[in-house]
Amino acid sequence: MTTPIGDIPASSIIPALTWLLTGLQANIPADPAADGLLICLGEPGPYQPQDIVYIGDIHQTYAPAATVGSGGPQWLREDYPITVTVDCYRGGDDQLTVLTRARTIADLVVATVRSDPSLGGAVDRARPAAAAHTFGWAQADEEHTAAGRRAEIVLTIDCLKTL
Fold first, then answer.
1. Domain total for the chain?
2. Whole domain around residue 45: which residue ranges?
C-alpha cells in the first residue's frame, strides 16, 4: 500500500519556530537600563544591542514511529532540538548584574515553552532540555564600544512530533 504525497504530513519545524519566536517577542520585556533588546531568528546582523535572544540551529532526525504501515500519517517520528541563545552585555565590571539579566531572560524562554509544550499545536511535545552558561570579561570591539561583562546562556528545547 502506498500513500499519496499530498497525504504525508509536513515537518513541524516552521510552525514551531514561528510560535516560539512570537512567544518570546511577547514575553521578554526590554531592560530600561540597557540600550535595547533584539529577539530574532538566526544569528543577529549588525544591530547588536546589549540584550540579544536568537533562535539558532536545528538538527532534525527521523525515526519510524511504527514498524509496519504505508508511510502515511503517524508512521514517522521527527525529533529535533531548537537552540535558543541569550547574550547579554553591560559596560563596567558588574558580572552578577549581567548574569542575572541573562538568567532572567533564559527563565522566560523556559516559561514560554512550558506555558504550551505543544508550541501552539506544532509539536506533540517540547521541553527545555539543557542550558550552558558562559560568562566573563568582554573586550571593546565592533559590537561593544567599551570593555565590560558578558553572559551567554545557550538553551536547548527538545521537540518531538509524530508525522
1. 1
2. 5-162
Residues in the chain: 163
CATH for 15: 3.30.70.1700
At 61-113, the pLDDT tens digits run 998 877 666 677 777 899 999 999 999 999 999 999 999 999 999 999 999 99
Q: Would you say the pTM of this structure is higher than 0.85?
A: yes
Cα separation values, 13 from 107, 148, 157, 158, Å: 23, 36, 12, 12
**Quick check: helix, strand or coil at residue 67?**
coil
Q: Identify whether the C-beta of residue 103 lies closer than 8 Å to the C-beta of residue 153.
A: yes
d(CA 150, CA 4): 52
